[in-house]
Amino acid sequence: MAVANAHLTSSFTSIRLRSSDFSSVKSFPATKSHLYLLVSPRIDSTRNKNVMMCASVDGVDSITSRSFSLFGPETDYVPMPIVLIDQDTDPDATIVQLSFGDRLGALLDTMKALKDLGLDVLKGTVTTENSVTQTKFFITRLSTGRKVEDPDVLERIRLTIINKVLKYHPESSERLAMGEAFGVKPPEKKIDVEIATHIHVKEDGPRRSLLSVETADRPGLLLEIIKIMSDINVTVESAEIDTEGLVAKDRFHVNYRGAALNSSLSQVLVNCLRYYLRRPETDEESY
């Protein structure tokens, strides 16, 4: 069966999916029999949700997932969509994590979209805890077998995941900055870039510094930040790219010629980032 190592307690559910499970995407023909595994996280009066994993009995490549309500219609509450790209935790793979309340999402379609970017999905995990479902992908470049380092590819991964969230959960568009251009309903409240932008640099050992950037999200933001750092010869060693609804919260391990940034260069970096990030109309052509 395509669902391996299913672990269930009264409040925590973890499902691990092999990379071979994502080799192709097939729909469920009406003539085939199917085996359903009901995975039940903790049920309470506020989030009456279960997650069902469905797989055909004659193949592991036709697994899908869906969420459903046990006790009536779904609530109107729209949770916060979060997309996290983690370059630090795993030495060999880039980790992409998606959470959107208790909505599980379309796993295989997302996996196929990542493969279309030239990426190899090593494995995927689905974890449900306290009514929040997290989908995590471990990916590498097909061409090299190594984690993703190219900022352009990282941004394409981020936008691909967000586009899938918008496709399968159109209600998320009111909680995402991308909903302004690509969603069915733009966010009701816009983020004030002046207020939302926070930039900090601190030492992280003798050979590198930690840059934290929080600002209003927009397409191309990661490339913009990387370009600014490159212009002043600051090297990015690794990054954690966190999109939380309308806000981007990114962390970068950086250095200058193999050493941590001194106070003068740190201030230059902060000033440059603040100048460009507070100008949301800036596009790549203005570089």
List the helices and strands and how they pair.
Elements: E1 4-8, E2 12-18, E3 34-39, E4 49-56, E5 64-69, E6 82-86, E7 94-99, H1 107-116, E8 119-129, E9 132-141, H2 151-168, H3 179-182, H4 193-196, E10 198-203, E11 209-216, H5 221-231, E12 235-244, E13 247-255, H6 263-277
Antiparallel strand pairs: 1-2, 2-8, 3-4, 4-5, 6-7, 6-12, 7-9, 8-9, 10-11, 11-13, 12-13
Helix pairs in contact: 1-2, 2-5, 5-6
N-end to C-end Cα span: 52 Å
Using the alpha-carbon principal axes, give the shape.
globular
Number of helices: 6
- Please tell me the overall pLDDT: 75
Strand content: 25-35%
* Biggest pleated sheet: 10 strands, antiparallel
Structural write-up:
The protein has about 290 residues and is of the alpha+beta class. A hairpin with a 7-residue loop joins strand 4 (about 50-55) and strand 5 (about 65-70). Helix 1 (about 105-115) packs antiparallel against helix 2 (about 150-170), helix 2 (about 150-170) runs antiparallel to helix 5 and helix 5 (about 220-230) runs antiparallel to helix 6 (about 265-275). It has helices at about 105-115, 150-170, 180, 195, 220-230, 265-275, and strands spanning about 5-10, 10-20, 35-40, 50-55, 65-70, 80-85, 95-100, 120-130, 130-140, 200-205, 210-215, 235-245, 245-255. A ten-stranded antiparallel beta sheet has the order 1-2-8-9-7-6-12-13-11-10. It has a three-stranded antiparallel beta sheet with strand order 3-4-5, with no helix packed on it.
